[in-house]
Design brief:
Structural class: mainly alpha
Number of strands: 2
Number of helices: 41
Protein name: Ankyrin repeat-containing protein
Shape: extended
Organism: Pristionchus fissidentatus
Strand order of the largest sheet: 1-2
Keywords: ANK repeat, Repeat
InterPro entries: Ankyrin_rpt, Ankyrin_rpt-contain_sf
Strand content: under 5%
Distance between the termini: 74 Å
Helix content: 40-55%
Length: about 725
């Protein structure tokens, strides 16, 4: 009864209100006399929201009100009468926390005698709860007293008729008492909408008799008639049919035919189709059959999308030969994709749809069924066109390759049993083993590898040829050749697995003869790809099998450690170092793994490498710049800070005789410059790099670090001035 610190009936503030215990009626702990005065003694206050014949409420008893609402719900007329008599009928206007009155509950639970009693005490038939539901909404939606909807089919005829009679009586009483027959809730739904939703024919009939609007639209532009089509309420549909407009659309452009087809309500669909086809000369009526909604779909397409085969069949019977729209011709593709076999059969055998029709991806229905592992549909489609088994889409995928890519084991078995070519590759040169590996199709890969020599997979289906000199198959049997076959980038399935981190499949392929020393066109082995992607578990396994992999270099001289460090994979970097990687190994750009980490701004791997012995000053021996110069040049503040903390000399010079400060100014890294001039050795950074003779000094100003600071970063220069003064 209370919300936001006020009584919902009179808006009187309840201040520090602590409620009553609703079980005992006693004060809860913490309630004081002042609170109870506000709660129980609301003397001589006018009720602000309830029109009652009593102008004051002497005692507001929560326990009594709970009892009153329960009595209205259960049909306890005697208790209701006692409470109404005790407060001169004021209880008829009380609202609970949901804004519901006793009349709402009486209508909700179909208690006609309670409804009659409450109306006698002037209960408001237009009272609204929080959802703007009025008693009439409840009476129209809930109409089977004491009967579970789960067992509706077991209702006796007398029970159903009794329920209808009580509903008529309640709706009549409310309307006689001036209930607004077309009032809507927060969703824009009237009582007639809810009668249609729940199949309440008694309420619908009575509401229509009293003038309810059958074409009133809710916020989604749905009428009560359309609602009956949605929920399959055939009795209400029959009542509303003569009174309602059939040429109407909801917010999504769905007609009544769209709605009935989408929900598969056959009786309603047949009635609408009969009405459409009997409307000779009425183009609006006949156009409903082919009308599209805002998604561009007809009723037939919606029925097919929802797997309502009977509805599809009904609609197909009304189509003339060749009447299908271009979009409807793709229904077979969608049905095959979703696994709707009955729909596929109807579309092929009754509508004559073409099983070899290609979509924009070059895929026929068989491709889509295979990609989604609908083995039963694959078998059916192959029974129509056996030669479609080797059909390729735009990417060169056959149904078998799609099944392998999507872990479609059931479909793969069907296709292999029907002698699909298992050595075939797509346009990228990837065979079924490669694709199963790439897409982590574990069950498919296990089946293929364990049954390569089984009679179900014959060796005589095609002759294997290596695709390039790198595809080294010397001494390999067919299974091993297929496992180690390369794609257009000269990568094998093992490359792909290691890059993706599929450890179980890595072990499976290795067990069946996969090479881990193979290299792609960039001369990367599987460990390179695992390192680049940070697949630590795979790295550990590969090094356990072949420790020398960690020193292999790609075509740019990068070891796996270079790749892990550059990409910030700390755990992978540790695993590679523990596996024997050379910290001083350099790529063709004269960079160590530490250089790569610093250059990429990866503080984590920079720390890992230095903690394990990598030296950022190695190049200084050859007069080259060190790690600090590199970090400054790239503008990585955090790495610069870390290297300084590790004791690197801030005044060191690179091969161009530049200090880190010179580089920071040149590259425009103000915060790094600020960091450097605040270093204890800042004075060494202010020494000029030029070697002007005395006469030259008189001709033009020297290009000193201080001059460049003043020109580029005056606020940083001021720090130096302050240091000079002090």
């Amino acid at each position: 009864f209370f919300s936001e610190g006020k009584c919902s009936m009179c808006d009187i503030p309840l201040m520090d209100f602590s409620p009553l215990d609703t079980e005992t009626g006693k004060l809860m702990e913490g309630t004081n006399e002042k609170n109870m005065t506000n709660l129980l003694m609301l003397n001589n206050r006018k009720l602000s929201k309830a029109s009652v014949h009593q102008n004051s409420l002497e005692v507001f008893d929560v326990v009594k009100m709970n009892k009153f609402m329960e009595a209205a719900s259960s049909g306890d007329v005697r208790t209701l009468q006692e409470i109404l008599d005790s407060d001169a009928g004021a209880a008829a206007h009380y609202k609970d926390l949901n804004g519901s009155t006793a009349l709402h509950y009486a209508c909700r639970y179909v208690n006609k005698d309670v409804v009659r009693l409450l109306l006698k005490y002037n209960a408001d038939p237009n009272a609204e709860d929080r959802e703007n539901w009025r008693p009439l909404h409840y009476a129209s939606k809930y109409f089977q007293k004491d009967l579970s909807r789960d067992f509706a089919e077991n209702f006796t005829e007398n029970e159903v008729e009794k329920s209808k009679s009580e509903t008529r009586d309640i709706v009549n009483q409310l309307l006689i008492s001036k209930a607004d027959i077309n009032a809507v809730d927060v969703f824009g739904c009237s009582a007639l909408h809810y009668a249609a939703m729940r199949g309440n024919s008694a309420a619908a009939e009575t509401l229509l008799h009293y003038g309810a609007q059958p074409d009133l639209k809710d916020k989604n532009s749905i009428t009560p008639f359309m609602t009956s089509c949605t929920y399959g309420a055939i009795e209400v549909f029959d009542i509303l049919f003569p009174e309602s407009s059939k040429i109407v659309e909801d917010r999504r452009g769905n007609s009544v035919l769209h709605i009935a087809a989408q929900h598969g309500h056959i009786q309603i669909l047949r009635c609408l189709l009969s009405w459409i086809l009997n409307g000779k000369g009425e183009e609006d009526r006949f156009s409903l059959l082919h009308r599209i909604n805002h998604e561009g779909k007809t009723a037939l397409q919606l029925a097919a999308d929802a797997d309502h085969s009977e509805a599809v069949e009904e609609l197909m019977d009304k189509y003339k030969e060749g009447q299908h729209s271009e979009d409807e011709n793709w229904m077979l593709h969608k049905a095959a994709s979703k696994g709707y076999k009955d729909i596929c059969v109807i579309l092929i055998e009754k509508a004559g749809m073409e099983v070899m029709l290609e979509n924009d991806d070059g895929r026929i229905p068989l491709h889509l069924a295979a990609a989604n592992n609908h083995a039963e549909i694959v078998e059916y489609l192959l029974s129509i066109r056996a030669d479609s088994i080797e059909a390729k889409d735009n990417q060169g995928f056959t149904p078998l390759l799609l099944a392998a890519s999507n872990n479609g084991l059931d479909t793969l078995k069907v296709l292999l049993d029907r002698k699909a070519k298992f050595t075939i590759s797509d346009r990228m040169g990837r065979n079924m083993i490669y694709l199963a590996s790439k897409y982590n199709s574990m069950s498919v890969l296990q089946y293929i590898l364990e049954h390569m020599e089984d009679k179900r997979i014959s060796f005589n289906q095609g002759r294997y040829r290596p695709s390039s000199p790198r595809d080294d198959v010397t001494g390999m049997n067919l299974k091993e050749r297929m496992i180690n076959k390369t794609d257009m980038n000269q990568e094998t399935a093992m490359h792909c697995l290691c890059g993706n981190g599929y450890l179980e499949l890595v072990r499976l392929l290795f067990k069946h003869g996969a090479s881990i020393n193979c290299i792609n066109e960039d001369e990367e082995n599987p460990l390179h790809l695992a390192a680049e992607s940070g697949r630590t578990n795979v790295i550990v396994q590969l090094l356990e099998w072949e420790n020398k992999l960690c020193v292999a270099k790609d075509d740019e001289g990068r070891t796996p450690l270079h790749k892990a460090a550059r990409n910030g994979h700390e755990d992978a970097t540790i695993a590679l170092i523990n596996g024997g990687s050379d910290l001083r190994s350099k790529n063709v750009y004269d960079e160590t793994a530490l250089d790569c980490a610093i250059k990429a701004g990866e503080l984590g791997t920079t720390k890992v490498l230095m903690e394990r012995g990598a030296n950022p000053s190695d190049d200084e021996e050859r007069g080259m710049g060190n790690g600090l110069h590199l970090a400054v040049k790239e503008g990585h503040d955090d790495i610069v800070q870390y290297l300084i903390e590790q004791g690197m000399e801030v005044s060191s010079r690179d091969e161009l005789n530049q200090t880190p400060l010179d580089i920071a100014i040149e590259e425009g890294h103000k915060e790094i410059a600020r960091m450097l001039v605040n270093h204890p050795d800042w004075k060494k950074l202010m020494e000029p790099t030029d070697e002007y003779s005395l006469p030259e000094k008189t001709k033009k100003p020297r290009d000193t670090p201080m001059r460049r600071l003043i020109h580029n970063f005056p606020d940083v220069a001021s720090i130096v001035f302050d240091k000079c003064v002090t």
